[in-house]
UniProtKB/TrEMBL annotation:
MF-aspect GO terms: RNA binding
UniProt-recorded name of the protein: Integrase catalytic domain-containing protein
GO terms of biological process kind: DNA integration
GO cellular component, as recorded: nucleus
Keywords, ordered alphabetically: RNA-binding
Source species of the chain: Austropuccinia psidii MF-1
Domain of life, source organism: Eukaryota
Location of the Integrase catalytic domain: 50-201
Taxonomic placement: Eukaryota, Fungi, Dikarya, Basidiomycota, Pucciniomycotina
InterPro entries attached to this UniProt entry: Integrase_cat-core (IPR001584), Retrovirus_Pol_polyprotein (IPR050951), RNaseH-like_sf (IPR012337), RNaseH_sf (IPR036397)
Length: 201
């Protein structure tokens, strides 16, 4: 591939000076084709104002690659993290929960923490639904959406999610349920409060 450029060059024709256009063919290298690098739309970086108090700004995400657990067959966990204290809240749920289901879980959280000023999450269909958007507009809560390749916005949630997945995986390595010495049956979903306490301490 070449790109043709025209430049003005002064040449001497006898005693006269005249300008003639000089055509120059310059090869143009397409770096993406040469290296095989795919162009990625990184999106805009969102500015996060660091909170001054607990539960002003929270991260929200889901762990979905979990085995069904308990009588309600939970197969996911909603993870909410306070950006100020890095304190997480883990809530068993289903990966196909609707925005209404998530809002009902949310009500259990804000009854203890109060309303948030800003919620950071990815562009999940539940996070961008009309119900979720209108609900938080009424609350006066700002919804911010993290983008891929920007760990400043979603890195905190990712690290805690990896830790939660690791803890649940260790439990499931011994079986999806077990009975204690008193005869009670335990599943990973019933151990979520203990896992949350273990993480906080």
């Amino acid at each position: 591939k070449t790109e043709h450029l025209k430049k003005q060059r002064t040449v001497h024709g006898g005693h006269l000076r005249e300008k003639k256009p000089l055509n120059i063919a310059i090869p143009v290298i397409d770096a993406k084709k040469q290296t095989g690098v795919q162009e990625t739309n990184l999106g805009l970086m969102i500015h996060i104002q660091e909170p001054k108090f607990p539960w002003e700004v929270v991260h929200m995400d889901w762990v979905t690659a979990l085995p069904p657990s308990g009588d309600k067959r939970y197969n996911a966990s909603l993870v909410i993290i306070d950006r100020y204290s890095k304190t997480p809240i883990f809530l068993p749920c289903h990966k196909d929960d609707t925005a209404m289901d998530t809002a009902l879980l949310w009500s259990r959280v804000i009854s203890h923490t109060g309303l948030f000023q800003n919620i950071i999450s990815d562009r999940d269909t539940k996070s961008t639904s009309a119900l979720w958007t209108n609900l938080h507009r009424l609350f006066g809560t700002k919804l911010s959406f993290s983008t891929a390749y920007h760990p400043k916005t979603d890195g905190l949630a990712e690290r805690i999610i990896q830790t939660l997945e690791s803890m649940i995986r260790r439990f499931c390595a011994y079986g999806l349920k077990f009975q204690d010495s008193d005869g009670f049956t335990h599943y990973w979903c019933s151990l979520i409060p203990a896992l949350e306490m273990a993480y906080k301490t």
